[in-house]
Amino acid sequence: MKTRLADYYGAPRVELSLRRGAEEDWQTVFAGNPKPSFRDYGDRPYFSSLLSLDDTFADAPPSRVRIEVSGFGGIGVRHLRVYIGGRMYIPSSVVAKRGVVRGSEHTFVDDSRWCWMGELSTNGAIASMNPPPVHSLELMLAEVRRNSDGIK
């Protein structure tokens, strides 16, 4: 998952969950703040998070991914990929959105565009003193098919 912060001092909580089919429960694979370190200013404002999954999805790959953002400030999601058993899956369509989610289609391609989730202003979120809402994006995943040269 490649992410971006508009305000380095923001503290968004991100929860990333995967699901095999519509009938199965969501399985949370990450919950926390994706910043590598609060002291490491060299990585701002872009971060890449590599999550190692166990063999939970080895027999049947996930069909959907859900990203939930809450806390103070928001986060931009640039791209997301899931590698399982030598296969790669990327977002192919938007299933559902809730809260502040702008540019969700930008998660489909690994470029400089991003999908913004949550409040843009960390100061505004803190000043409101309201419990932060949850912003969520659910995406359908599709396998990227490659030929023998590794090209789609």
Radius of gyration: 16 Å
Overall domain count: 1
Report the total helices: 1
DSSP strand content = 35-45%
* Helix and strand composition category: mainly beta
Total strands: the figure is 11
Q: What is the overall silhouette?
A: globular
List the helices and strands and how they pair.
Blueprint: E1 2-4, E2 11-19, E3 27-32, E4 46-48, E5 64-72, E6 75-79, E7 82-84, E8 87-98, E9 101-102, E10 115-117, H1 122-128, E11 135-143
Antiparallel strand pairs: 1-4, 1-6, 2-3, 2-5, 5-11, 6-10, 7-8, 8-11, 9-10
Q: Can you put this structure into words, describing what you see?
A:
This protein is mainly beta. The protein has one domain. The protein is built from one helix and eleven strands. The strands form two sheets. The chain has a six-stranded antiparallel β-sheet with strand order 3-2-5-11-8-7. It has a five-stranded antiparallel β-sheet with strand order 4-1-6-10-9, with no helix packed on it. The longest helix has 7 residues. The two termini are 21 Å apart.
